[in-house]
Amino acid sequence: MDITRTPADAVRGLWQTLSARDWDGIADWVTDDCIYVDMPVGPTLAARGPVDIVKRLQVGLRDLAAYENHEGRLVSEGDLVMYEHSETWTFATGEVVELPFVTVHRVEGGRVSLWKDYWDFGGVVNSAPPGWLEGLGSADTSWIFDATGQI
Fold this sequence. Notes:
This protein is 25% helix and 37% strand. It is an alpha+beta fold. It has one domain: Nuclear Transport Factor 2, Chain: A, CATH 3.10.450.50. Strands 2-1-6-5-4-3 form a 6-stranded mixed beta sheet.
């Protein structure tokens, strides 16, 4: 762990790595027991640890033609970092979705130990290509971790 990183630096580094879709690099920014959860789908579909977090992220992002995180306002207090930002998802079929996010992070020892994304799932569903949502049903789900009561 890099305890010289500030919590804000750790969060910025994580999002820069994700924006580059540097799947191997994610492990440098999250703890071995980090919990990641998309709050629109809830804690029963969380992922835990770098390997499973990457699997989870790839469900939504791997097949996009382009993906970009846009920096926004970041507020840090102690080990808590809140980040208001947005993402642009470009599907292979040409649809483009701009998604506003608020993400809450807990940082320990210079790495993110809790990552909760708040965003409009319906906004993606309404703008994604036909069949996208149904395609998620056949995705790898080996990453599923029930974080109920832990976040």
